[in-house]
């Protein structure tokens, strides 16, 4: 077979494969690592059965749906939020539709902003079930208001609830996991912890703090501190728009005001699909996952790897590698040209690589493209 034809066929196959993967990505609702885990990874039905799972923010939205799906896996559930009557409603439905009995579910009212109560709450869970296998930090609140129209108290509450409350509860549960040398800490963050959006400056700041400060500094540092405890894993879940009451319960310009209207949610991911992907992430101990439909997922990829700081760092690294290659190439060309010049006796004082050398020696050209 003609080698040129074979190469063309291989190139065509590679192009078709690239197109297929692009089409699959355009239909994706999770990052590539997560979708690979869904296809080839461990099943939640295998990994999470018989565990004790503590879910905060379990009275509605993602936390509520998480309780329903976990109840079908045969786990022991701890449901926490401020609204006790809503927690009791979620518990009744878990008992009706799940595989749990009354003794398998503990309703534990909890205010994340009341950090002084977190130690006692942790002791209550340990007294009831004897252990905590998974802590799901899902509790939080959003915001919908212009920055200029938003009270400082709103920003303060967002930080205290979304960030400090999560840190406090994690610190209370962690010693128990260290003692047992195993456990999972799962934090439900947001795509808005990666990118920014108008009307949500305070919410974006709190989620960014949770991701950058807690995950990258505290939790990555925590992973280093817990190197002797490989059984303890830390995960960061970043959902995009999901069908829930998060907009309805969002703070407006004042702490006492909420939006009280969810608006059209037809374009958002269903809560059941979001939670299913979360369970897959938990079963496979993924460090960070993005759960969102298009175009939000594509925007997140572009922001993370092209427009954001990490993207600039990536481009800088690629450019520095290019500079090293150019430097090596210039050195090789110079050596070969020197040998050619000597072999020809220096006739005409030129060599065939002079134009290339001129380009490679143009330092300003190189410097102008250096970040």
Automatic annotation (TrEMBL):
Gene3D superfamilies: NAD(P)-binding Rossmann-like Domain. Coiled coil: none annotated. GO terms for molecular function: all-trans-retinol dehydrogenase (NADP+) activity; carbonyl reductase (NADPH) activity. InterPro entries: NAD(P)-bd_dom_sf, SDR_fam, SDR_family_member_7. It comes from the Eukaryota. GO terms for cellular component: endoplasmic reticulum membrane. This is Dehydrogenase/reductase 7. It comes from Mandrillus leucophaeus. The lineage of its organism: Eukaryota, Metazoa, Chordata, Craniata, Vertebrata. The gene is DHRS7.
């Amino acid at each position: 077979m003609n080698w040129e034809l074979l190469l063309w066929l291989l190139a065509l196959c590679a192009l078709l494969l690239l197109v297929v993967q692009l089409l699959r990505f355009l239909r994706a609702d999770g990052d590539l690592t997560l979708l690979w885990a869904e296809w080839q990874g461990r099943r939640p039905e295998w990994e999470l059965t018989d565990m004790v799972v503590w879910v905060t923010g379990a009275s509605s939205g993602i936390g509520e749906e998480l309780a329903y799906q976990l109840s079908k896996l045969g786990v022991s559930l701890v449901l926490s939020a401020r609204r006790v009557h809503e927690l009791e409603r979620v518990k009744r439905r878990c008992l009706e539709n799940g595989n749990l009995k009354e003794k398998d579910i503990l309703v534990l009212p909890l205010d994340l902003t009341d950090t002084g109560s977190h130690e006692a709450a942790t002791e209550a869970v340990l007294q009831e079930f004897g252990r905590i296998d998974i802590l799901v930090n899902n509790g939080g609140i959003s915001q919908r208001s212009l920055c200029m129209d938003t009270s400082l108290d709103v920003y303060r509450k967002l930080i205290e609830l979304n960030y400090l409350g999560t840190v406090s509860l994690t610190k209370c549960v962690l010693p128990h996991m260290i003692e047992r040398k195993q456990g999972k800490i799962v934090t439900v963050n947001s795509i808005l912890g990666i990118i920014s959006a108008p009307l949500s400056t305070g919410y974006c700041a709190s989620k960014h703090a949770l991701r950058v400060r807690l995950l990258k500094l505290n939790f990555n540092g925590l992973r280093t501190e817990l190197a002797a405890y490989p059984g303890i894993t830390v995960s960061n879940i970043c959902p995009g728009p999901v069908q829930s009451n998060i907009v309805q319960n969002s703070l407006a310009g004042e702490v006492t005001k909420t939006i009280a209207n969810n608006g059209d949610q037809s374009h958002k991911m269903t809560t059941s699909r979001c939670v299913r992907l979360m369970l897959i992430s938990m079963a496979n101990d993924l460090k960070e996952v993005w759960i969102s439909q298009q175009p939000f997922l594509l925007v997140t990829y572009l922001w993370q790897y092209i427009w954001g700081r990490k993207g600039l760092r990536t481009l800088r690294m690629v450019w520095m590698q290019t500079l090293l290659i150019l430097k090596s190439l210039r050195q090789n060309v110079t050596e070969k040209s020197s040998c050619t010049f000597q072999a020809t006796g220096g006739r005409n004082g030129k060599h065939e690589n002079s134009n290339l050398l001129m380009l490679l020696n143009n330092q300003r050209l190189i410097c102008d493209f250096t970040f």
